[in-house]
Fold this protein.
Amino acid sequence: MTITTTATQSQHFLHPLPYDIVNNIVSFLDPKACLECMAVSAIWLNDLSQYDMKHVWGRIRITDESPIYNKRWELCMGNHVKHVKLQFKDTHQQYFAMQMLLDTGCHHIQTVSSYLFYHLLHA
């Protein structure tokens, strides 16, 4: 017996599964893994952004290396972001990161931790 699937069927692997099961699977992803899964295809990008991201994106850390101006990153932002840790070398970058959070619908942030590394670079 041979089972064949088309590219479209394999890309929609989440569709046959109940929402609650996929949502539970997604909850085990960390932000980096979530972004990597969303990069697989436009279908995965669209499908994954429909699930409850509060487990993955409820607490985020934004650094100089974070891809905050990335479409996948922006799709993951929203009111479920509650706790933010900013780690930058200067205050301008922190300002732009906070503005990006507001622009992408993160209006219910409860805590912000801010760490500037300027003194470590010039010590």
Q: What stands out?
A: The first strand starts at residue 59 and ends at 63. Strands lie at 59-63, 83-88, 111-116. The CA atoms of residues 20 and 51 lie 9 Å apart. The chain is about 45% helix and 15% strand.
